Amino acid sequence: MNTAEYIIKKIEELGVNDIFGLPGDYNFDILNTIEDNSQINWIGCTNELNAGYAADGYARIRGYGALVTTYGVGELSAINAIAGAFAENIPIIHIVGLPKTDDIKNKKLLHHNFQDTNYSAFIDTYRSVTAAATILNRDNAKLEIDRIFKILVRKKQPVYIGLPIDIANLDISDRYVPTDWASDKDVLNTVIEKITEKINNSSNPVILGDVLIKRFNAEIEYREFVSHSNIPATNLLMGVNLLDTNLPNYIGGYYANLRNPIAEKHINDTDCLIAIGTIYSDINSFGHKIPYKINDHIAIYGDYTYIDGTKYENIKMSDVLDGICKTVLPKNLQIDKPNIGYKIKDTENNELTSEYIYPRLQEFFKDNDIIIADTGSIPLGICQSNFPASADIQTQTLWASIGWGTPAAFGASLAKPQARTILITGDGSHQISAMEIGNMLRCGIKPIIIVINNYGYATERILSNNENSKYNNIASINYSKFARAFEGDIWATTSKTEEDFDKALKVTQIMNKMCYIELCTVNNDVPKLAIDYSNDNKSISTKNTNIQKDESLIPQKQELTNSNTTYETIVHKNFGENE
């Protein structure tokens, strides 16, 4: 088969059936290949940034996502979405259609380039926001495609494939090359033995789970370990609902000193922290308040683990958790379980505020829902809910790019159409990418979209020194009327009171169409936890005692094993800089 066909086949083997992007004259051969494949759907988006966000949302639910853009203008438009996926371990294959190899070699001035022609500028930029990036040529196409896909599967981060027009139609071998990898058994056994000894000898262990458990497909092993060990378990913000809240040893989310003193005490007083899949960033950890380095205890990541500050590589998170589940002795600890979730409030037909919205949403959520909580204050309202056990909550808290949520919900809905997708977004974020509603309708998906209209960048207002600054104002839009401007099966309404909101939620239960609810709140309304977090960090900043982020605590881009590094070196030596 030709190169384009082989790439699409590899994508299909990963379980991806929808590829997002926009057409451009450098990628027509790729798009024709997609349309000729009966197992793959082409999903055109409004712009490349939205397409990248949609691929991100798709990958969070399906495991992997795929994006196709054209050279220069297309790929640069998408780079913010790819950077966010890189930050949060979202595996996306980004295929970029390039000019012909000879045109690149001869630096021919073509459209989408600079007057001072530079065909390496864009891939050089992408090398910083992908786990691997390559431009294919006649000599390396098969080898490079197989190498790139192996890195994608191992690192769970985006990869970049530059595909020149002439190489897209080049015949290459279709020999199957597996993409999965196995843990180093000797290292794995050592890690299991050391972790087991450390936990069994501890008197006050605590488990701190987070979102990388999802990214590295270790949710089943994680839940089994927590249940078997009977060790108190909490989570950071992005790790919400990894565990059934009814589990006896689940002690609720960790909010530092702002909420849930039970989880705070366990974290602060532990003699054995078991951190699993953590991203120790400012918002995710509520201000870096943990009084020690996470990696100095036990910290289990996707393909490496820290024990007492020593790093052990080439081992899967799922294998480590499966191993220690069989060797760690269950603890017999007295665990105080806090109350989890909001108390449901009675309707009084008052103006809408967060104090009413989030308890009502908690009541509205069902098992198997996909809940997209858009960037801003919304995750801080959602995180305190008592969720149904099988609900899947997705946020983008580390990269925190407004505009992510709407196209991410588009991708998530296509990834699992049998589930109910609920998008909760803010007016400022929604304005950036709301045109994707048209493509949702075109594709026949029916999410529930809730737009919280608090009249501006309310999160930025509480973070800034002057809440009345004009730079946090945005255009005024009648959102429900805007939604009805699109052709398709949609029901839209505006809710201004508690009673309006209750009625709107009930209507969604009987509607077999996209439901779009605009919530007009009081000005600058945000969840109380967001205000408390903002005030707490302002107070710390004023005292000049802010705890600085320790870069060593965050999973960094890792090199491959020695054998693979040698293989990369050989490829580079044989094929030159285009590798």
Topology:
Layout: H1 3-13, E1 18-21, H2 28-36, E2 41-44, H3 48-62, E3 65-70, H4 73-87, E4 92-98, H5 101-105, H6 121-126, E5 132-135, H7 141-155, E6 159-164, H8 165-168, H9 185-200, E7 205-209, H10 212-215, H11 219-229, E8 233-235, H12 261-269, E9 272-276, H13 282-285, E10 298-300, E11 304-307, E12 310-313, H14 317-327, H15 354-364, E13 370-373, H16 378-382, E14 392-394, H17 405-415, E15 421-426, H18 427-433, H19 436-442, E16 448-453, H20 458-463, H21 479-483, E17 490-495, H22 498-508, E18 514-520, H23 528-543, H24 562-575
Parallel strand pairs: 1-2, 1-3, 3-4, 4-6, 5-6, 7-8, 7-9, 9-10, 13-14, 13-15, 15-16, 16-18, 17-18
Antiparallel strand pairs: 10-11, 11-12
Helix pairs in contact: 1-7, 3-4, 3-17, 9-14, 11-14, 15-22
Task: Quickly describe the structure.
The chain is an alpha/beta fold. 39% of the residues lie in helices and 15% in strands.
The biggest sheet amounts to: 6 strands, parallel
Relevant CATH superfamily of the largest domain = Thiamin diphosphate (ThDP)-binding fold, Pyr/PP domains
Strand content is: 15-25%
Q: CATH first level of the largest domain: which class?
A: Alpha Beta
Radius of gyration: 24 Å
Unreliable spans are 541-579
Helix content: 25-40%
* Outline type: globular
Spatial ordering of strands, largest sheet: 2-1-3-4-6-5
Compute the number of helices.
24
CATH topology of the largest domain: Rossmann fold
Domains (count): 3
